[in-house]
Design a protein that fits this description.
- Helices cover about 75% and strands about 0% of the residues.
- The protein is mostly helical and about 575 residues long.
- A two-stranded antiparallel ribbon has the order 1-2.
- A hairpin with a 2-residue loop joins strand 1 and strand 2.
- The two termini are about 45 Å apart.
- One of its GO terms (molecular function) is oxidoreductase activity.
- This is Na(+)/H(+) antiporter subunit D.
Length: about 575
């Protein structure tokens, strides 16, 4: 078998490097071409094709084709091209899109790596490039990007620890070295927590709604796709046979994210919480394990990238045309923005899992897998997340497009934005009406699932009806809700003042030791030079201070000697 000439991420990274130097329009066209070319390239690459290399002196596989990497490559390439088109027509400059393409390229590198070493290298590069994409916008995005970088640095460090531990246990970084994911007992735990940052485990999630509403609207379209979905891919590699604890965490994510989204007025913050909620279904599918649940998880990855990017594009158009981020400051836009309204409605029905749309197919697979394995608590939690999703998007859609009236004339999406949104909306409908087309690209086989049964349709309609009735009662109370604090309102101040206390305390300690050493040196010099007069001038208090200073100096010398000895032994 002939290896590919280049892994698919290389042309994307090359386009990122060239884009700032070839002019804005030509550069964006190059970016669209490079990302779009990934789709046929990946589709035509036969399963099992790989590119072995030596990385840092270890055996590695820079490009590995299997069903999971193929599905990720198809959707990553397609949505990357759409996002670059959207960027071009949303006034994103060349440097921002170059950062975005570098983010796409490193994400492709992560999902096509055939070993843990390659994955962790691209994982960390993905964190760097996404941070730069956030930072570039400036303003409030800078601090949010800093917090984002810190959390992903911690998560990446934990995953790196897991990779090293796995190597000690398995003797190889290659995925093929083990048949059941990460080896040993400690490595999977470290990996679950490290990857949990990326997928938004409850308690590790606050970076998501903190970061994604901050940068340019086009940057948010990229950000909503790659980090969390690469995390789902990584979670599967760690637990290919499932893990119930992970499944229940996914169910909690689905409920928590939907609940928090319902309380938001910032439109992109609302959508960000729903990334956590929808990724919860994917994580639950991975945790349940088996062909149906795993297929549902990755089908939901594919579908979610479509409708979530579409949601960020439609909301981005609202912000682009009105300059308003807050739902309370817009309204009645359906009359002036018909294309945006229709494509938003398709995306909202898709994410909510309404029959006839793609979310109904993949979400139903995960729910069915939980039901068939008699995981009743898990099943009910996932259903509750579905009700919360319907409620949130009734609130967002009704508030932005139906209720009230915006106080000035507003243009609809421009030509390029419309092309991108209509294309993605069409796929949301296509994969909803023809689920067999989705099943054909899923990486698992052998499951038996019929999408459009009476029971499944009744379930989807019942969730929608419960949410519609619920919104009638919740509409007024929700309007009175202000900004709802999340867990970061607790740990951000603790981290800030805790770090400050450590720095100040260390500085003061060093200054105290320095003063004591200087004092002892002066007194010692005086005693040696003029012993009789110097000792005679010392009072009782001076004797105490001299003794204390000598004691601190001795302790300091001992610490230095111990440190040197430790370094020599290591």
């Amino acid at each position: 078998m002939v290896d590919p000439v280049v892994p698919p991420f290389l042309p994307v990274l090359l386009a990122a490097v060239l884009l700032p130097f070839v002019g804005r329009k030509i550069g964006h066209a190059l970016g669209i071409l490079a990302t779009a070319a990934v789709v046929p390239y990946v589709w035509l690459s036969p399963e099992g094709q790989h590119l072995p290399v030596s990385l840092f002196g270890f055996d590695a596989v820079l490009y590995n084709v299997d069903g999971f990497s193929t599905l990720m490559g198809l959707i990553f390439g397609f949505i990357g091209a759409v996002a670059v088109l959207y960027s071009l027509y949303s006034n994103a400059d060349s440097i921002q899109t170059a950062f975005a393409l570098s983010y796409v390229g490193t994400s492709l590198g992560a999902v096509f790596g055939g070993d843990w070493l390659t994955l962790i290298v691209f994982w960390e590069l993905m964190a760097v490039t996404s941070t730069l994409l956030v930072w570039y916008y400036g303003g409030r995005a800078v601090r949010a990007g800093f917090r984002y970088a810190l959390l992903h640095g911690v998560g990446g460090t934990l995953l790196l620890g897991a990779v090293v531990w796995h190597y000690v246990e398995a003797g190889s970084f290659l995925f093929s070295a083990t048949s059941g994911g990460m080896a040993g007992e400690i490595a999977p735990i470290l990996a679950a927590i490290g990857i949990g940052v990326n997928v938004g485990f409850v308690g590790l999630h606050a970076w998501l709604p903190d970061t994604y509403p901050r940068p340019h609207i086009a940057a948010s379209v990229f950000l909503c796709v790659y980090t969390t979905k690469t995390g789902v891919y990584g979670m599967y590699r760690v637990f290919p046979d499932g893990e119930l604890a992970i499944a229940y965490m996914g169910a909690l994510m689905a409920v928590f994210g939907a609940s928090m989204a319902l309380l938001q007025s910032d439109m992109r913050r609302l959508l960000s919480y729903h990334i956590q909620s929808q990724v919860g279904y994917m994580v639950a599918g991975v945790g349940i394990g088996g062909a149906l649940a795993t297929g549902g998880a990755f089908g939901h990855v594919f579908n979610h990238i479509l409708y979530k990017s579409l949601l960020f594009m439609t909301v981005g158009v609202i912000i682009f045309r009105t300059g308003e981020e807050n739902l309370k400051k817009v309204g009645g836009l359906a009359r002036e923005m018909p294309i945006t309204t229709i494509t938003f409605t398709i995306a909202a029905l898709s994410i909510a899992g309404f029959p006839g749309f793609n979310g109904f197919v993949s979400k139903g697979m995960v729910l069915s897998a939980a039901h068939k394995k008699h995981l009743d608590v898990l099943w009910y939690l996932l259903l509750a997340g579905g009700v919360g999703t319907f409620l949130s998007f009734i609130k967002l859609g009704y508030g932005a497009f139906v209720e009230g009236e915006y106080d000035s004339s507003v243009k609809d999406a421009n030509r390029g934005q419309s092309v991108g949104m209509i294309l993605v909306a069409g796929l949301c409908v296509f994969y909803g009406l023809f689920p067999s087309a989705l099943f054909a690209i899923l990486p698992t086989e052998g499951f038996h699932y019929t999408t459009y049964t009476l029971g499944h349709i009744e379930e989807g309609l019942a969730l929608a009806a419960i949410a519609a009735v619920g919104y009638v009662f919740l509409k007024k109370p929700l309007k009175k809700v202000g900004r709802v604090p999340d867990i970061d309102s607790l740990y951000n101040p603790v981290a800030l003042y805790g770090t400050r206390a450590v720095v100040v305390g260390t500085t003061n300690l060093y200054a105290g030791v320095d003063r004591a050493v200087v004092k002892v040196s002066r007194v010692s010099t005086d005693v040696v030079t003029h012993p009789d007069s110097a000792l005679g001038r010392l009072t009782g208090h001076d004797h105490v201070r001299l003794s204390a200073g000598i004691g601190m100096s001795v302790v300091l010398v001992v610490l230095v000697l111990v440190s040197i000895l430790t370094l020599m032994l290591v």
